[in-house]
Design goal:
The chain is mostly helical. The chain contains 20 helices and nine strands. It has two domains: 345 residues, Metal-dependent hydrolases (TIM Barrel, Alpha-Beta Barrel); 108 residues, Orthogonal Bundle (uronate isomerase, domain 2, chain A), CATH 1.10.2020.10.
């Protein structure tokens, strides 16, 4: 047996003095409640509070961090239990079968592929702290792992609500389309359970003309709200109505996963022309981008009115692999970061709303070259702007360090929003927050020993970075 050990000093600096201070800072934030203001966990988990079905369904099948690495090494998504989309032609032998133990063995045999990745940190943390496993995952230990996790999942202590409480989650936000009835959120509210599970307004299916089924989605938006969404005025009114519904169900934020951060400020006649072409399915790629750009400005206008915090997550070339997309659909590990412009792209929106103190726009990036050149200077000037934490491919030990080292000198700590985990992998949430807290304390300790600010100030900043900046920014 090869031991699985989570070293207490992991991710802390090797220099003894800096490491000692990092330890002391971390001790003050290690057990703070988790604020998870943006993510993609399934609200049905908390509504039903049913046992998770099996190890593979929980830890492998839904996690694109896991299966994209395995796919890159020649493992088919079918072998990992990822189901083809309903309209895909299925010809592979056994496609769609789900043998949890076989999937787990496939994963365990290739666990070495995750060496050096944040996924390895997160999974080892979950194996050890959630399931009490003290040996490393190897082909030889695969069945012992599987049996241990399977046994745990049958216990009441491993149901979603119990884990939510065990993880010390103060509040978590999921992400839903405007077309979602939020029935799971309603059931959570009516259950009497005290866990705070909020929704967030993600309008991509009804603001992106290139989204599958866009015209039908917009028609459904109109049916839900009683508005004529074929007219520009009715279309905007429908958004306002659904945003009000989401707010009534606890939402404090919106989220926008556009390909770019481009914004526009067009006249109503041009907006109607673009809407007409989008609903007919005749928009060009440039017109679709213009429509999305205009809608970011419209969403900012609505946020100023209704108080919802706005988030932009741009810069991903989504579904880059057409074969995977055709067969398995969206969000199957084939999203790739792109170069992203913010200074020019955001100017029409910022000209209108950047100076508003009652409006908050949180910016994320997959393009690290923009930290020091664009994002930190923008957030260091405009009252409306805040910087989101390292995101997606950069939600990692070194990614976090790069963000802090490049952004803080210009933006300052108080123009950032701490951390959010942005995950659908529920068991990774404590691990992700633990990595952030360790890296933040490492960075603060380094600042102190380099005499950039005082030790007392580092102890003030540690809980802000761990929890309080996120609570304030997301109005939680």
């Amino acid at each position: 047996m090869i031991p699985l050990e989570l070293h207490p000093d992991r991710l802390f600096p090797s220099d003894p003095a800096t490491r000692s201070l990092a330890r002391s800072l971390y001790a003050t934030v290690q057990d703070l409640p988790i604020v998870s203001p943006h993510g993609h966990t399934d609200p049905q988990w908390f509504a039903d509070d049913a046992p998770f079905p099996d190890s593979s369904s929980l830890l492998i099948v839904p996690d694109h961090y896991v299966f994209r690495m395995l796919y890159s090494q020649g493992v088919g998504l079918d072998e990992l239990g990822v189901l083809p989309r309903p309209d895909a032609s299925v010809s592979a032998s056994g496609a769609g079968r789900h043998d949890p133990r076989a999937i787990w063995r496939t994963f365990a045999t290739r666990y070495h592929l995750f060496r050096g990745t944040p996924t390895r940190l997160w999974l080892d943390h979950a194996f050890n702290t959630v399931f009490g496993i003290d040996e490393r995952l190897t082909p030889e230990s695969a069945d012992r792992y599987f049996d241990r996790i399977e046994a745990c999942l049958q216990e009441p202590a491993f149901r979603p609500r119990a884990l939510f409480e065990r993880f010390n989650i103060e509040v978590i936000a999921t992400t839903e389309s405007p077309l979602d009835p939020l029935s799971h959120h309603r059931r959570i509210r009516e259950s009497g359970w005290k866990g705070r599970v909020l929704t967030a307004y993600r309008p991509d299916p009804v603001v992106d003309p290139q989204f599958e089924g866009f015209a039908g989605n917009v028609a459904q938006l109109g049916a839900l709200t009683g508005e004529d969404t074929a007219t520009w005025g009715g279309y905007l009114a429908a958004h306002r109505a659904r945003r009000a519904f989401f707010r009534a169900m606890g939402a404090t934020s919106t989220d926008h996963g556009h390909p770019t951060a481009r914004t526009l400020d067009l006249g109503a006649a041009e907006c109607q022309r673009l809407l007409d072409r989008a609903l007919r399915g005749s928009v060009t790629a440039e017109e679709a981008e213009s429509f999305r750009a205009q809608m970011l400005t419209e969403m900012a206008r609505m946020s100023l009115d209704d108080g919802l915090v706005m988030q932009i997550h741009p810069g991903s070339f989504r579904n880059h692999n057409p074969q995977v997309h055709a067969r398995f659909g969206r969000d199957k590990g084939a999203d790739i970061p792109m170069r992203t412009d913010y200074v020019g792209a955001l100017k029409p929106l910022l000209d209108r709303y950047g100076n508003e103190r009652d409006f908050t726009l949180i910016l994320f990036t997959l393009d690290e070259t923009t930290y020091a050149r664009e994002l930190a200077p923008l957030a260091g000037h405009y009252p409306a702007l805040r910087l989101g934490p390292p995101w997606w491919f950069h939600d990692s030990y070194q990614g976090m360090l790069r963000f802090l080292e490049q952004a803080i000198e210009t933006a300052g700590f108080y123009n950032t929003v701490g951390f959010n985990d942005d995950t659908r992998a529920f068991l990774s949430i404590p691990a992700r927050h633990d990595v952030w807290r360790r890296v933040a304390c490492r960075f603060l300790a380094t600042c102190v020993v380099e005499h950039r600010f005082g030790e007392d100030e580092a102890f003030e900043l540690a809980p802000l970075l761990a929890r309080d900046l996120a609570k304030a920014a997301y109005k939680l």
